[in-house]
Amino acid sequence: MKGNKNIQENNRCDMNSYGDHKKKKSDVQQQASKISKSFDQASSEAENNNANDDDSFYDWNKNGNLEKTNIDRVKSDIPQTRMIHAQIENEEEGEETKTPEDEDKQRNKMFQQYEMRKEEPSLVSEYVVGSSPKDESSSEQSIEEKIKEASSQHERNIRNVNLEVNNNQNLNINQNIESSKYIYSSEIQAHIRMKEQELKKTISLNIIVIGKTGIGKSTFIEAFLNEKFEKLNNEIRPTTIDIIEKKAVRKENGITLNLNMIDTPGYDADTQIAQWQQKIIGYITSKFEKFKQVKKEQDNKDASKQQEIQDQRVHGCLYFLCGPRINKVDLDNLKKLQEYVSIIPILARGDSYTPEEVKQYKKQLRNDADQNKIFFFDPQEVFQDQPEKLNKLLKSPFGSVPPFLIISSIKQIQKSENQVFYGREYKWGICDIKNPEHSDFMLLYTSLIGYFSTKLIKLADVYQNSYFNQKKKQQKIKEKENKIEKGILFAGLFSAAAAYIYTKFQKN
Ligand SMILES: Nc1nc2c(ncn2[C@@H]2O[C@H](COP(=O)(O)OP(=O)(O)OP(=O)(O)O)[C@@H](O)[C@H]2O)c(=O)[nH]1
Ligand SMILES: [Mg+2]
User: Fold this and answer.
1) CA separation for the pair 97, 29 (Å, rounded)
2) Which of 219, 205, 216, 313 is nearest to 260 (CA)?
3) 400-409: per-residue pLDDT in tens?
4) Whose CA is closest to 46, among 9, 14, 17, 11?
5) How far is the CA of 175 from the centre of ligand 1 (A)?
6) Ligand 1: does its nearest atom lie under 6 Å from the Cβ of 218?
7) 266 Cα nearest atom in ligand 1
8) From start to end residue, where is composition biased (Basic and acidic residues) (predicted)?
9) Secondary structure (DSSP) of 333-402
């Protein structure tokens, strides 16, 4: 009971800060247009304002179930309970009220357990490559054996794949960045290599991030791109008022991935949704137009003079949703967007929910989409011939993905001199947003840049073709309408002239 109360209080806090954020957005927009004040100033002015969250939820029938695979893991299978939820669960089991000292002790204990777990490289890589810690085939293996097996597999992959990587020096800005512990398991590296060979070019992956205001899009992008957990000055973020591209290059062992995350302004109750949709869709289609034009120019050149085209089309959309259901505006947005881009749903602000709520909401979001004929990107397409791989690689302790459960933060938490991460602190614990036991953040990362990337890029061709076919059809319809209009005009003129001649003739 007390646990639930804590969560509700947390949610209330959350909604207040979300309300503040919405208010800040309108204040900032007004002030920006009137007196061009800086965003920081404007946000601080708006800091004490409150506004209500006025989401309306969509009405639906409670039948049908989209979940095709059941890869939920029972709680007992999880080697260490998630720290972020540990306190809540204890409290739900009726533990005594704790003093601040007790809470500190518990927090430190949880931190120690977590740190110990982080030190075990094989366990981290198990999560990244998706094999269960209780996987039957590997349960007998020692940690050393697992590492040995992973590195020999890695070497085999490297030997098998002969890469031609285009080392574009201009893009090579992050060359010296040490990659995070969670990033680039051997399997993912090999996967990207194979993708590069398949595509015969450096991978460009452009992902647009969409959702209502204050849901955490910009924070997510910063955390997603910043592998070094750098201290950022803008922990209190201004609202986003335009579409902004944020780029990073992932480069490891000669592999180049140009990652472009596209931040967008969120919508709120005051937004003209039609205009907002037009802006987002206009951005996506302008990239199709540009790509087509550049490709045409290249095709007209001699083969020897042709250059590789940098693909700037939007390959995927991370659509940020919150539980428990998809609201009307999001449903409408999703219906329109799915005509232009592959959509991967995100259950955002994951720290607002209990583990049970997370699983339930994920299911509900999928059902709502299904009922409303919204088709999310389906990972089964990636692993068509190997369904067992899908279950193995996309395993989350928080129920099937997508939707991916995401907690975002750019608050740097310094545990020791060498240990730093982006996280959120609560009175019951600390959350490391990239810890696979706290959210699906890293599972999303590895899925996006690894498993899903080629499929997303290929699907962009399908969406592009469909866009141009649709455009052609509309042009034809317009031409027909023009012809009919001209015909009517001509017929009108003709009958007017005939009537005139007839009356003249009658008079004479
Ligand atoms: N509790 C919690 N707060 C979050 C989370 N993600 C972001 N926030 C906070 O929510 C506030 C708004 O975050 P932003 O990233 O600016 O939200 P946004 O979606 O970009 O908002 P707009 O730019 O207005 O569309 C900030 O104070 C963040 O620190 C999260 O996962 N959990
Ligand atoms: Mg933003």
Assistant:
1) 45
2) 205
3) 899 999 999 9
4) 17
5) 29
6) yes
7) 25
8) 96-106, 133-155
9) HHHHHTTTS-EEEEE-SGGGS-HHHHHHHHHHHHHHHHHTT-----GGGTTTT-HHHHHHHT--TTSSSS
